[in-house]
Amino acid sequence: MKQNSYDLLNKINFSKVDFARNSNKFNFITKSLYFLILIIILIILYLFSYINYQFQKQNNNIHKSISLLKNNQNNNENSLHFSKTKNFETEINLDKYETNIYNNIKNKIIGFSCNTEMSNIHREFLNGVVRRFRPKKILEIGVYKGCSSSVILNAIQDLDDSHLYSIDLSSKNYIGKCVRTLFKDLLPKWTLYTGDIASKFMEKIGKNIDMVLIDSAHFEPGEILDFIIVLPFLSDEAIVVIHDIANQITVPMFSKNGWMSERNEWAPYIIFNSIRGKTYLPSGKNTLTQGIGAKKLDIDQKKYYKDYFRLLGGQWQYFPKEEYIKEINDFFLKHYDNECMNIFNDTVNFNRKFVKENPKNNLYDYN
């Protein structure tokens, strides 16, 4: 009996020990589970805070970027040389820009038979360039009857500080006739130089030219040489307009028979597509199909000087008079370094010899 009681007591004691062990194990598991849940909650809170922080940071960066864009736009609007506008340049079709200004004289221009100089879409584009950028000092090389001169003068008539300087190698009486006949009231805003090459008049015109229209020989060296002459006189980010930049294709295409079909007018295309700067063309067009374009020059054009001089290194299609060559050489000595002069002299010497040995390659007389 005593033995049975003793055994029963031992069982009870062992049961208490097992219960205590199980209870401790349960408490440990419970505490571990609570701790794990707490860790998960903390991780979730941390991730939420981090994501919210990154979102706020990105949102702030977006606002800063928008603010910078607005500041840059405001700086462009306050430019000394160009007009105020809220439009981004990439959104502008210059041939559609303020066409109402050009339309005021459109019928007069057409009636003066100016389509042989510049088509209507080209005149709209030229008007748009002037109205968009509001240049103060404008230079034109190649005048002929003055139809393009008339478009420019009409576009600046309400711009008090704007003035057009025009240069033509010829001094015949039809040079600028359109202006003198139709737009006598605009003559005070126009200065015309004739009878010599551009380098002869650049010192008189002076620097800080905001826009130049080059529409001269079309044959090499032609517009290439003209651009190099005016380059040191252009203001920062000046607008350069080149006409007939597709003549190397369009002239033979439209004139399949006779002398016109043999014209090889590469100079405008070469120089236009070599100028470093932002390109503007009539809407929906490219330089292979459209005859006019504009460039807004990159800052610091001096680093491209030698590249432009190397464009003269091809076979010239006419050779200027020796007096012009000397005049240009003296002019370049004042504005370009020895490397540029070496390129120029080598090119002149080669083409002088080439023309003497091959007189048929000097058929085009632009002297």
Word description of this protein:
The protein is α/β, with parallel strands linked by helices. The protein has two domains: 1-78; 93-362, Vaccinia Virus protein VP39 (Rossmann fold, 3-Layer(aba) Sandwich). It contains 13 helices and seven strands. The chain has helices at residues 2-77, 99-103, 106-111, 120-133, 147-155, 177-182, 202-205, 222-230, 247-254, 267-272, 305-310, 322-335, 338-357, and strands at residues 137-141, 163-168, 190-194, 209-214, 234-243, 277-280, 292-297. Strand 4, helix 8 and strand 5 (234-243) form a beta-alpha-beta unit. The chain is elongated.
Write the layout of secondary structure elements.
Elements: H1 2-77, H2 99-103, H3 106-111, H4 120-133, E1 137-141, H5 147-155, E2 163-168, H6 177-182, E3 190-194, H7 202-205, E4 209-214, H8 222-230, E5 234-243, H9 247-254, H10 267-272, E6 277-280, E7 292-297, H11 305-310, H12 322-335, H13 338-357
Parallel strand pairs: 1-2, 1-4, 2-3, 4-5
Antiparallel strand pairs: 5-7, 6-7
In short:
This protein has 367 residues and is an alpha/beta fold. It contains 13 helices and 7 strands. It is elongated.
Q: What tags apply to this protein structure?
A:
single chain; 367 residues; alpha/beta; Rossmann fold; seven-stranded mixed β-sheet; 13 helices; elongated
